[in-house]
Amino acid sequence: MKISILTLFPEMFESIFTQSIMKRAQKSGFVEIKIHNLRDWAIDKHKMVDDRPFGGGPGMVLKVDVLHAAILDLKEQNSDAKIILLTPQGEKYSQQRSEQFSQEKGLILIAGHYEGFDERIRDYVDQEISIGDYVLTGGEIPAMVIVDSVVRLLPGVLGDENSASTDSFSAGSDKLGCPQYTRPEEFDGKKVPDVLKSGDHAKIEKWREEQTKKRTQQRRPDLI
């Protein structure tokens, strides 16, 4: 998969994609991630990418001509990519949507900033996505969230193919994950449940299913 990110602040991505699973996924060839500076498409000597909104009001708005030029070039480099505009006004992101994105051949993520986008740019994207009902200073963090959630779903990235399929919110699942324990067996008077040390896989699986249902009922009854 090829992922392109269009941003005004490429430096923000320098560490997030060079660590842990993201680093291994790129090194192993499962994904190619490229960060692009929107200012590279500015058409004036001052490299302006935003301007005051017509009608007045606070903040600055990203220019449609600059964004459009960037989209055309990135699409030429990544012709099969789905173009995603990151905006609080978009569809709320979910695990199901990340699973769908992981099936795409490529993604182009547009991280906005300032007061927002010129409305006309919406005609040149495939989808608008929001990661939640709150406002951030820009689309860079949402872009990181989407890339992380998608890349870990690519075949071979996690090593164990069951890791992603058993995650909370995965397709076909209406429950949260079950409790997990590791050593030490006792800490501060709290012990690991005996069933997990029994070696009886059928009993362990039944216990996990019961705990999963109980946890979901307590914490997210809306999922049931």
Return the structural class.
alpha/beta
Shape: elongated
Largest sheet: 5 strands, parallel
CATH topology category name of the largest domain: Alpha/beta knot
How many beta strands in the DSSP annotation? 10
Rounded mean pLDDT score: 93
- The parts where pLDDT drops under 50 for at least 5 residues are none
CATH class of the largest domain: Alpha Beta
Write the layout of secondary structure elements.
Layout: E1 2-7, H1 20-27, E2 32-37, E3 50-51, E4 61-62, H2 64-77, E5 81-92, H3 95-101, E6 106-111, E7 116-117, E8 127-130, H4 140-151, H5 162-165, E9 186-187, E10 190-191, H6 201-219
Parallel strand pairs: 1-2, 1-6, 4-7, 5-6, 5-8
Antiparallel strand pairs: 3-4, 9-10
Structure, described:
With 224 residues, the chain is α/β, with parallel strands linked by helices. It folds into two domains: 2-151, Alpha/beta knot (3-Layer(aba) Sandwich), CATH 3.40.1280.10; 174-223, Orthogonal Bundle (Trp Operon Repressor, Chain A). 29% of the residues lie in helices and 20% in strands. The chain has six helices and ten strands; from the N terminus they run E-H-E-E-E-H-E-H-E-E-E-H-H-E-E-H. The chain has helices at 20-27, 64-77, 95-101, 140-151, 162-165, 201-219, and strands at residues 2-7, 32-37, 50-51, 61-62, 81-92, 106-111, 116-117, 127-130, 186-187, 190-191. The strands form three sheets. Strands 2-1-6-5-8 form a five-stranded parallel β-sheet, sandwiched between helices. The longest helix has 19 residues, at 201-219. The radius of gyration is 22 Å and the shape is elongated. The two termini are 34 Å apart. 25% of the residues are buried. The model has no long low-confidence stretch (mean pLDDT 93).
